[in-house]
Specification:
This protein is mainly α and 345 residues long. Helices cover 70% and strands 0% of the residues. The protein folds into 3 domains: 47-130; 137-203 and 331-344; 205-221 and 256-326. Helix 3 (162-177) packs antiparallel against helix 4 (184-200), helix 5 (205-218) packs antiparallel against helix 7 and helix 7 runs antiparallel to helix 8.
């Protein structure tokens, strides 16, 4: 486009009008500057709106994708947790099955061991039955001898019955004498030694102690057997003869019980200690016997003054404390043990 310009200002100013020269224009007219600026601002606003919309859309899409990723991750974690829990249940189930299998194996092993033991016992019984040296009569006599030896030993240990034990051992010797087997020779020899040791026992120490204790209880001094205080001599002063009938002079530190009540209680305690000693002898309890006799000796000193009867009773108590109560027979039961060893072999 071209623009027309006015005439130069170099021409002198005058009041006369000058003719204007107008050049013809061949181009289109341009819009005013304000309209062009408005279109630019509109384009800029549209561009900003589009960019903001695009940014919001992209941010929204990214948030949706992150939310979807979080949901998927949570689902995967939950699926993994459920799968792990399932694996744990499987592991626990396998552990329980292993424990059950182990218990079953132990039961089966115990049953197998029991079957093996029963088979071994059956094998031993078959061997014993197949033994040519073991016939019915011999086995019966050996059983009879074992029964008699057991009876004699138990009667001696439990009841201290020497006569009954001697009779049982004599019957066992008769049974062994009727056996012609060479194996009975050692049994007869051992039984002869045991019978000799049994005959050497004169009496049961427990019965001896009981008899001596009963004799001691019977021979204890009483008020009638105690020595009487000596009367004053005939040539003593008259006041001594008179006062001796009214006053009895004794030591203040004497251990004897003077009053009738004290003496009665002391005699009861003495009898109780003797009963405890008798019970200890029945049980063959040496410790309890010594303790009871020691207490009885103390009561003896308290109840009766010094006299020959008291000295004799104290000597008997000391002898009872030292007497043994157990049967000393080292060979007791040796024949029975040898018989069982022979039968087991």
């Amino acid at each position: 486009m071209t623009e027309s310009t006015a005439s130069s200002a170099d021409t002198p100013a005058s009041d006369a009008p000058s003719p204007a020269v107008v050049a013809p224009s061949t181009a289109t007219t341009t819009p005013p500057p304000t309209r062009r600026t408005g279109w630019a601002w509109l384009a800029l606003l549209l561009a900003l709106a589009g960019g903001g919309a695009w940014l919001w859309y992209s941010d929204h899409q990214r948030a949706e994708r992150e939310r979807a990723a979080e949901i998927e991750a949570a689902q995967r974690i939950e699926a993994l947790a459920s799968r792990i829990e399932g694996l744990r249940r499987d592991v626990r189930g396998h552990g329980q099955r292993l424990q059950q299998a182990d218990a079953t194996n132990r039961v089966l092993r115990d049953e197998l061991l029991g079957m093996g033991q029963r088979a071994a016992l059956l094998e031993d019984q078959v061997k014993k039955l197949a033994d040519a040296n073991r016939d019915g009569a011999l086995a019966l006599r050996m059983d009879e001898a074992e029964l008699l030896l057991t009876l004699g030993e138990q009667r001696l240990r439990l009841a201290a019955d020497l006569d009954g034990a001697r009779r049982a051992y004599a019957l066992a010797a008769g049974v062994l004498d009727g056996i012609d087997s060479p194996r009975a020779l050692n049994l007869r020899q051992a039984l002869a030694q045991e019978r000799a040791a049994l005959d050497a026992l004169k009496d049961d120490p427990r019965r001896v102690a009981l008899r001596r204790l009963d004799a001691l209880a019977t021979a204890l001094p009483t008020a009638d057997t105690l020595p009487r205080p000596q009367a004053p001599a005939a040539n003593a002063p008259w006041w001594d003869r008179v006062l001796s009938r009214l006053v009895s002079v004794r030591r203040s530190d004497a251990p004897q019980a003077l009053s009738s009540q004290d003496r009665e209680a002391g005699e009861i305690a003495m009898q109780l200690e003797l009963a405890l000693a008798r019970n200890a002898i029945e049980r063959r309890d040496d410790t309890a016997l010594r303790a009871a006799l020691q207490r009885a000796d103390a009561w003896l000193l308290r109840l009766w003054p010094a006299s020959p009867q008291r000295q004799a009773a104290r000597r008997e108590l000391q002898a009872l404390r030292e007497i043994p109560l157990a049967l000393e027979m080292p060979t007791l039961g040796s024949t029975l043990a040898l018989l069982r060893a022979e039968r087991g072999g």
